[in-house]
Design brief:
- Pathway: Steroid metabolism; cholesterol metabolism; Lipid metabolism; Sphingolipid metabolism.
- It is a peripheral membrane protein.
- It contains 11 helices and 24 strands.
- A 9-stranded mixed sheet has the order 4-3-24-21-20-19-5-22-23, with helices on one face. Strands 6-7-8-9-10-11-12-15 form an 8-stranded parallel beta barrel, surrounded by 6 helices.
- The chain has 523 residues and is α/β, with parallel strands linked by helices.
- Strand 11, helix 9 and strand 12 form a beta-alpha-beta unit.
- Helix 5 packs across helix 6, helix 6 crosses helix 7 and helix 10 packs parallel to helix 11.
């Protein structure tokens, strides 16, 4: 009998290892798959997906921690006691809640044509599961969705909404099948899952070819004529028509950008959709055309974000545009992409821009891994890419950025579709043949912020008692609770404590190559 009991007990343990088990608060474990890289992906299907569940913080005197690590933890939840006295750890992170900085707007990703194609390639159940992972309360709480206006490289064809030459009145302006059959229905489903209104953000890649100097959607080209002229006025009205058409489907936009990567349209032989603007041209187009058109439209409260390009163009771009009172009065913020961030320190670009123009917010509008020729496309299970995401988000937040938007919400295993074969990576990779999707380590990079930093959360000061390899950012949420997000990119375990004068000492361990989110109530 004892032998039989031992065998049964062993079988129970084995089953527990291979079958995902539900934990407290509705959480479910990752079904890990290793594709031979430095970490794992979590596999989801129509009936199962790992989730940390909806989160309620423990009462005053306790704290929650959520750990994701290269070793395989994925938002692993734990609770423990706040200590009255110091643990004596050599490294102490001290919260300074009287040092107050920017308030958070939100986190999210882009509903490109490619993302929509991939989501819709799954069964209805798996589609719902994927959307829940991003937008529902039991998911990671995305609140921002960037929507390309017409085609971009992550489309299967080249198109705009006004391809009839000479249509200055936009009489033939029409949304594409991609909008009607894919993006709009998916955005409506995402909105239905979200407990709050989604912050939709529109970006155009190119004006119709007939409005452009090069007569093409791709390559080096800008609008014909000058700001204030008929092409520039029509291009402004194109934005208004887009907002009006989407509003018919109950989708209203929080913000629009002045155009995706205007520097690309100034480059010879640029391979995909682009519209060139210099900062001076952008300034004058906003002042003379876009600003007045938006102000006179039925969407006067839609925010205008300039730049929508790499931060190395700052602060120069901001100086040219925002120093002009005629343009500045229509503008709310500066949109930045993460590409080439390593070439310019955050303080010299983001920091200087904020200090020069504190009334305008900074917002991250695009980022992805796998975009460089030597490191191209999808890498299933890449921890290094997840660390790059988390590092960049912390660095941005610590330099006044109010939100961070990933690129494609979902791609296929090649990193597409992309009509120009500009394949990249995504936090969610779809395998339509098996009707599954994989949540990459970068999905959890996003989760450590989007799940915990609600809109209105305010960054506060945090200081270290000694030099450390930890990277961190601290926030007070609208309900008064505190959140501290920590990245350990080193290969060593780091012991430390957090001191919040309002509650006490929190003893912590950051495993090698890990992300840690700590959260606690303060009253």
């Amino acid at each position: 009998m004892a032998l039989l009991s031992s065998i049964l007990l062993a079988l129970m343990f084995l089953t527990a290892e291979v079958t995902p088990q539900k934990k407290h608060s509705g959480s479910q474990k990752c079904v890990a798959r290793n594709f031979g890289h430095d970490s794992v992906v979590c596999e989801c299907n129509s009936t199962y997906c790992d989730s940390v569940g909806s989160i309620t913080l423990p009462p005053l005197g306790q704290y929650s921690s959520y750990l994701t690590s290269m070793a395989g933890s994925r938002l692993e939840a734990a609770q423990s006691q706040v200590q009255v006295n110091s643990t004596g750890a050599g490294l102490k992170l001290t919260l300074a809640r009287n040092q107050k900085y920017q308030k958070i707007r939100g986190f999210g990703g882009a509903m490109t044509d490619a993302a929509a194609i991939n989501i819709l390639s799954l069964s209805a159940g798996a589609q719902d599961q994927l959307l829940r992972q991003y937008f529902s309360p039991e998911g990671i709480g995305y609140s921002v969705v960037r929507v390309p206006m017409a085609s971009c490289d992550f489309s299967t064809r080249l198109y705009t909404y006004a391809d009839t030459p000479g249509d200055y009145n936009l009489d033939n302006f029409t949304l594409a099948p991609e909008d009607m059959n894919m993006k709009i229905p998916l955005l409506q489903r995402a909105q239905a899952l979200s407990p709050h209104p989604l912050s939709l953000l529109a970006s155009a890649w190119s004006a119709p070819a007939w409005m452009k100097t090069n007569g093409a959607l791709t390559g080096k080209g800008s609008l014909k004529g000058q700001p204030g002229g008929k092409e520039h006025k029509t291009w402004a009205q194109y934005y208004i028509r887009f907002l009006e058409e989407y509003a018919k489907y109950n989708l209203t936009f929080w913000a629009l950008t002045t155009g995706n990567e205007p520097s690309a349209g100034q480059m010879t032989n640029y391979s995909f959709q682009a519209l060139g603007f210099t900062p001076e041209e952008q300034r004058d187009w906003v002042a003379l055309d876009l600003g007045p058109a938006l102000h006179a439209s039925s969407h006067p409260h839609t925010h205008v974000l300039i730049l929508d390009d790499n931060r190395l163009l700052l602060p120069h771009w901001a100086k040219v545009v925002l120093s002009d009172i005629h343009a500045g009065k229509y503008i709310h913020g500066v949109a930045v992409h993460w590409y080439l961030d390593g070439l310019v320190p955050a303080e010299l670009s983001l920091g200087v821009t904020h200090h020069l123009y504190p009334d305008y917010y900074l917002f991250g509008t695009e980022a992805c891994s796998g975009f460089t020729p030597l490191d191209r496309g999808v890498t299933l299970g890449s921890w290094r890419r997840a660390e790059q995401y988390t590092h960049d988000i912390i660095e941005d937040l610590n330099h006044y950025v109010v939100g961070w938007t990933d690129w494609n919400l979902a791609l296929d295993q090649t990193g597409g579709p992309n009509w120009v074969k500009n394949f990249v990576d995504s936090p969610v990779i779809v395998d339509a043949k098996r009707d599954v999707f994989y949540k990459q380590p970068t999905f959890y990079s996003m989760a450590h912020f989007s799940k915990f930093l609600w809109e209105g959360s305010q960054r506060v000061g945090v200081s270290s008692s000694q030099k450390t390899e930890l990277e961190y950012s601290a926030f007070i949420r609208p309900d008064g609770s505190a959140v501290l997000i920590i990245l350990n990119r080193s290969s060593s375990v780091i012991q430390f404590e957090v001191w919040d004068p309002a509650v006490g000492y929190i003893p912590c361990t950051a495993p090698a190559h890990s992300f840690l989110t700590l959260a606690w109530n303060t009253h």
